[in-house]
């Protein structure tokens, strides 16, 4: 049987949206690069303070995951390019969030689709200066999938479980859940359960070879282990959250790029809204397009059954679900990768809400953690 949701803390439900304090990832590994931007085409440093008008180029990061479908569609379907107009779009694909953050800090990209925990870490490491969360993207689509013989949390003792990257969103979720279920783990891979950060494609191969016992993975990798490698679901992360909604992917931008090129950022957001609208209106075509992009990037298309299962587990939304952020951060404390900090200012949803208002749609909340 599946284990029950995480036990309450101090008499409160684990997944309450409102918390009285904020915490922040502080990885016990090499610090992220906090380098000055060396941009190509945008000339941010040369422009000096203040607005510089639309950028000549927008460099965008994302992952080849179904949880990044709005990015995949926006690029391949032309929604970003159309919205950006004269601004050229270039892209870079990453395996997980910490690598994307390093590229952002090094000035190699201007914006990226990413999970919440690496973005939080970067915000705090830079004393609130480096990045802003400007929109949501995807809710849901992460599961702990395991081999036969593991049916309860207790059965995980002595196993090796993968996550996409140390300090990434699924890595934090896994470590927090293990700890809350009485299973010791540490950042060096020790404890009752050895957590092993592993690239997603390698996780599938290692699991098939018997070198891993499972993984806490985003889609489509959870579905690939289930359908291609015989794994089963031990924990569906949506079962740990009120209403089954939790943040998997949002959109962030370098603060200096946002300040100098708000017109370009607004155009990017218009493109994202258009991409999500198209995803929702054309589910069959969207799956084909997303699969085609994954094939281009990864070299192999997903089987239809994997794609169908993955899409069933996720919802696309520009709402960043800001009310869940403090709980995500509290998971980092439990996981041993976080410390307390003030996250005020991490959101700037003003341009998104402008786009939504002009389209006659409801605005979204920053939950007191930034501009609306």
Automatic annotation (TrEMBL):
Keywords, alphabetical: Cell inner membrane, Cell membrane, Membrane, Signal, Transport
For this UniProt entry, the molecular function terms from Gene Ontology, in alphabetical order, are: ATPase-coupled transmembrane transporter activity
| Subcellular location, record wording | Cell inner membrane; Periplasm
The record, for NCBIfam families, names: SsuA_fam
Q: Which Pfam families match?
A: NMT1_2
This protein's record includes keyword Nucleus: no
Q: Where is the signal peptide?
A: 1-45
Report the sequence similarity comment from the record. Answer: Belongs to the bacterial solute-binding protein SsuA/TauA family.
| UniProt keyword annotation of Cell inner membrane present | yes
Mainly localized where?
A: membrane
Name the InterPro entries for this protein: ABC_SsuA_sub-bd (IPR010067), NrtA/CpmA_ABC-bd_dom (IPR044527)
GO cellular component terms, semicolon-separated: periplasmic space; plasma membrane
Domain of life of the organism in this record? Bacteria
Protein name (database record):
ABC transporter substrate-binding protein
- What stretch or stretches form a coiled coil here? none
